[in-house]
Amino acid sequence: LVYYRLLGLITILSLFLSGILVYAVMVLLGRWIGLSLDMAGIAGLIISIGITADSFVVYFERIKDEVREGRTFRSSVPRGWTRAKKTILSADAVTFLSAVILYILAVGDVKGFAFTLGLSTVLDLFVVFLVTHPLVALMSKMEIFSHPVWSGLGSVAEAGREHRAATAQLQ
Fold first, then answer.
1. Dist CA 126 CA 115 (whole Å)
2. At what angle do helices 73-105 and 109-127 cross, to 10 degrees?
3. What contacts 132, CB < 8 A, 6 or more positions away?
4. Which pTM value belongs to this model?
5. Of the candidates 122, 51, 62, 64, which has an alpha carbon nearest to the alpha carbon of residue 86?
6. Would you say the C-alpha torsion 140, 143, 148, 152 has a positive or negative sign?
7. pLDDT, tens only, 25-49
8. Please, is 56 exposed, middle or buried when counting C-beta atoms within 10 Å of its C-beta (0-12, 13-18, 19+)?
9. Alpha carbon of 52 to those of 14, 152, 158: distances in Å?
10. Neighbour tally for 9: CB within 10 Å
11. Is the dihedral of CA 38, 41, 47, 50 positive or negative?
12. Are 12 and 1 in contact (CB under 8 A)?
């Protein structure tokens, strides 16, 4: 919240939604196939929280890169998303592939870890693509997000203005 300010609120909302979604799917799988959550599964969930948070950091840092290059927050969101989407998909694909391989090769409790890690990774993509990005895109159109103090992009926006000024002098 201190670092990202209003974007941090979106992160907290998305993490909360992701947690609810994972919990709901685990409850449903518990009733359908008798899935039970053990310590290894909890470890997989904890790691997946970090992976989900990492997706937000990648996205927000790409937005900051765009602002640093002199764009407005509003125009930085779609450009940052295009760049972040590839990184998020790659990271989640590697994590999911690792979870699948671990599930196939593992025995006992480690399968629970691999299963929850893989499931949470898939749900991370769902939350990032269908909740976080649309929320950030919607918020980028609001005036309060354009203000660098509230968006958490104050120093980055200043660097962007300096970049635009330097580019204008070169032309």
1. 17
2. 160
3. 10, 11, 14, 55, 56, 59
4. 0.81
5. 62
6. negative
7. 888 887 887 766 778 878 888 888 8
8. buried
9. 9, 20, 29
10. 13
11. negative
12. yes
